[in-house]
């Protein structure tokens, strides 16, 4: 199915919006008004430089909160000039966002409506409130449809388009399958866990995906931990390959290696890695053959 | 870009229903107050809204139609009723574009908002459109449209990251090729056998033409479920084409794959669907030849799939 989404067009729209907001800021009567509009223009312009088709997660929470707060501030400071923006609350609800933020937006919208009473007179005020409530519900109904789709595939979709990086919920299932295959194929499979800082996680994940083979999948276990299932013909090969991989990644991450037969629960190993003092710890298979 | 997966939920229905009741209430109010010349519009529009509500209730997938009907009602009400009210043009000028953005997809909403700019400015601007009002309107349109862009972005991202088909429990084409590439390399590295079973469902087109899309979907779903039931956890079923599927069988020798093919053919032939009768499939086995490079192997699989479909 062809998608209508084009990054270039969206960026153009963002820049047009930033330009128009900037024009409004330049014609503002008061300093506060000009500052708020200038901030809005800046937000739009920065978003234009940041928007790209890669990350599945929406922007960080403060970045998402800013439009709602700016809108409330504009309607609070200079209501007479920015009455037009009153209806934008309905559009704000259409954006994908966490539930509590929907609640916050609704509260802010109600507050900004309440203080318009003096300005509009009771009749128009009541009508505007009723219409906004209807529009907000319509916006919410669209948002809910998208949220439902998002919830349905959250645990199974890859995290970045085109990269074999999967959510951590997928890992136990894949470990189970690799266990069966390891018995069948007589190969050595081990889980390599990497812990790094929050900021470096995504760049480390991209490098990890580039360095592993096409049949070795990577997982994001939490904000700081990545996992990968390494498959090698035997234990010696696995050790050499793991060392080469860790050397290529540099020493920015702590690592923990668990051979699949010794892996109990993934979350226990993840916690052990968080407490681990040495840069590398290895749990090998006990060598019965001697 | 109609998308049945994004059908509007019950909330949409509720808003439409309440809107209808409000219009009926307004018509009754005018009747009580004796404004007989003003009754016609709300009475007529409440009928249109009732139709829109019924359409949305009957077939959630076609709620696009009821969204357009609601928009027409809203625009007519704004155009006829609002100019009467004195004051606050800066407030009411923002209502029509937001209504369009909330109800319509991106393209039509933007076109409509830009095309109707002079109309709304003339109707709601109390005769003399001032530049400030126009600037406010255009800025609102530009900024509010971004919400729809973001929704499209999110949807495109969800599509691009979902490895599963929407119609049936099979991998998408891109995921299938990625998985096959992995299995191909793994088989080479570990010197294990790999087999691929090419599956074609020749009745799909016929099912849609004669019994509609629901029958086609039922057939797809039944075939995929039957195939998955017959194979192991590590086998992967993916959709190469509309009617063509590849079943990846890692660690399977030729004799094992032949056995599976026979078992599958029997199982699928026994599966009888209500409308279309027994499932008909064409199966063919393929395996990488020794020393065959990856692009050649995929090209061979695709060529075989083509011949299987045209047989």
Automatic annotation (TrEMBL), chain B:
The cross-references to InterPro entries, in alphabetical order and at most eight, read: GGDEF_dom, Nucleotide_cyclase, Rev_trsase/Diguanyl_cyclase
Entry-linked Pfam families: GGDEF
Top-level taxon of origin:
Bacteria
Arranged from A to Z, the UniProt key words for this protein are: Membrane, Nucleotidyltransferase, Transferase, Transmembrane, Transmembrane helix
Signal peptide from the UniProt entry: none
Q: Note whether Nucleotidyltransferase occurs among the keywords.
A: yes
- The EC number(s) given in the record are 2.7.7.65
Residues annotated as coiled-coil are: none
PROSITE patterns cross-referenced by the UniProt entry: GGDEF (PS50887)
Top EC category: transferase
The residue ranges crossing the membrane are 12-32, 39-59, 65-83, 132-149
Ranges for domain GGDEF come to 192-311
Q: Which GO terms describe its molecular function?
A: diguanylate cyclase activity
The name this protein goes by in its record: Diguanylate cyclase
Origin organism lineage: Bacteria, Pseudomonadati, Pseudomonadota, Gammaproteobacteria, Oceanospirillales
């Amino acid at each position: 199915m062809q998608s209508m989404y084009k990054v270039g067009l969206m960026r153009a729209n963002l820049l047009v919006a930033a330009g128009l907001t900037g024009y409004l800021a330049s014609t503002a009567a008061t300093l506060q008004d000009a500052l708020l509009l200038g901030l809005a223009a800046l937000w739009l312009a920065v978003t234009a430089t940041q928007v790209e088709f890669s990350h599945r997660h929406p922007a960080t929470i403060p970045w998402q909160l800013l439009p709602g707060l700016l809108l409330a501030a504009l309607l609070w400071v200079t209501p007479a000039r920015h009455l037009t923006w009153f209806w934008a609350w309905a559009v704000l609800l259409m954006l994908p966002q966490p539930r509590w933020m929907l609640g916050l937006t609704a509260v802010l919208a109600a507050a900004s409506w309440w203080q318009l009473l003096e300005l509009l007179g009771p009749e128009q005020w009541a009508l505007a409130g009723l219409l906004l409530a209807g529009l907000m519900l319509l916006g919410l109904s669209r948002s809910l449809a998208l949220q439902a789709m998002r919830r349905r595939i959250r645990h199974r979709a890859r995290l970045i388009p085109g990269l074999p990086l999967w959510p951590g919920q997928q890992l136990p299932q894949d470990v189970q399958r690799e266990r069966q295959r390891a018995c069948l194929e007589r190969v050595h499979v081990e889980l390599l866990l990497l812990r790094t800082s929050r900021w470096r996680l995504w760049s480390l994940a991209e490098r990890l995906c580039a360095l592993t083979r096409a049949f070795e999948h990577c997982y994001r276990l939490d904000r700081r931990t990545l996992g990968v299932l390494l498959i090698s013909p035997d234990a010696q090969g696995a050790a050499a390959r793991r060392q080469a991989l860790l050397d290529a990644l540099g020493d920015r991450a702590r690592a923990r290696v668990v051979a699949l037969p010794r892996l109990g629960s993934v979350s226990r190993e993840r916690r052990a890695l968080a407490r681990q003092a040495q840069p590398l710890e290895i749990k090998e298979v006990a060598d019965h053959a001697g | 870009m109609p998308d049945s997966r994004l059908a509007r939920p019950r909330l949409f229905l509720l808003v439409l229903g309440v809107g209808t009741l409000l219009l009926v209430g307004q018509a009754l109010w005018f009747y009580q107050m004796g404004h007989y010349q003003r009754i016609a519009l709300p009475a007529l529009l409440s009928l249109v809204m009732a139709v829109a509500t019924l359409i949305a209730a009957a077939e959630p997938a076609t709620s696009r139609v009821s969204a357009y009907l609601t928009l027409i009602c809203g625009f007519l009400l704004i155009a006829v009723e609002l100019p009467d009210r004195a004051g606050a043009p800066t407030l009411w000028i923002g209502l029509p574009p937001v209504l369009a953005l909330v109800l319509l997809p991106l393209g039509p909403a933007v076109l409509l908002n830009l095309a109707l700019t002079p109309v709304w400015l003339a109707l709601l601007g109390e005769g003399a459109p001032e530049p400030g009002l126009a600037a406010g309107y255009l800025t609102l349109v530009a900024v509010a449209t971004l919400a729809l862009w973001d929704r499209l972005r999110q949807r495109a991202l969800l599509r691009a990251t979902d490895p599963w088909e929407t119609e049936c429990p099979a991998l998408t084409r891109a995921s299938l090729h990625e998985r096959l590439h992995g299995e191909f390399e793994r088989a080479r590295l570990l010197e294990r056998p790999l087999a691929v079973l090419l599956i074609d469902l020749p009745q799909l087109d016929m099912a849609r033409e004669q019994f509609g899309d629901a029958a086609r979907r039922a057939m797809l779903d039944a075939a995929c479920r039957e195939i998955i039931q017959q194979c192991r956890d590590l086998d992967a079923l993916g959709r190469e084409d509309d009617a063509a599927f590849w079943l990846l069988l890692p660690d399977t020798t030729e004799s094992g794959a032949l056995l599976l093919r026979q078992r599958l053919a029997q199982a699928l032939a026994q599966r009888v669907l209500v409308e279309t009768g027994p499932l008909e499939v064409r199966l063919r086995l393929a395996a990488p030849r020794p020393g065959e490079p990856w692009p050649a192997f995929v090209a061979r699989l695709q060529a075989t799939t083509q011949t299987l479909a045209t047989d």
